[in-house]
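Sample pair:
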Amino acid sequence: MTFKNDAELLQDIIEIFAEEFATILDIQVLMPALAFEPMSLNIIQHMTSNGGNILGISTDNGPLIIVNVKCQWTNSADDTRIFMVISSFMSRNAGLSVPRGLDDHFIHMNYASLDQDVFAGYGQENVKKLKSIQNKYDLTGVFKQLQPGYFKI
């Protein structure tokens, strides 16, 4: 999840994280973490300095914050409960950022869940450009086949 920099929203997200994960603290060997990664205007400007930004991020969006929820546990029997908490956490955050006009389309690929469309935030033109590059340099799909799982254009 990515949103525009806003101190009140950051505080609200921390409170939601604490509320949501409090419901599963009975799980043994649970290590939840919440990380905020700022993307300043200066960083965004540098991302576009060599011919554009394929991620669809621009300084027009203002400084951004990327939210990364990390969670480790040992018992697979707890998967469903933990995934439900993470999903609820993300939904509640979207419920705050969207009405405030603070949401952003960018989904960091390394932090996305498999059910998220990371390429949608890149914009149609950028996705089209990526596909044309793929078609030009990887006609037989070697890179798709050598990289199991993950997100594919």
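The two ends are 20 Å apart (CA to CA).
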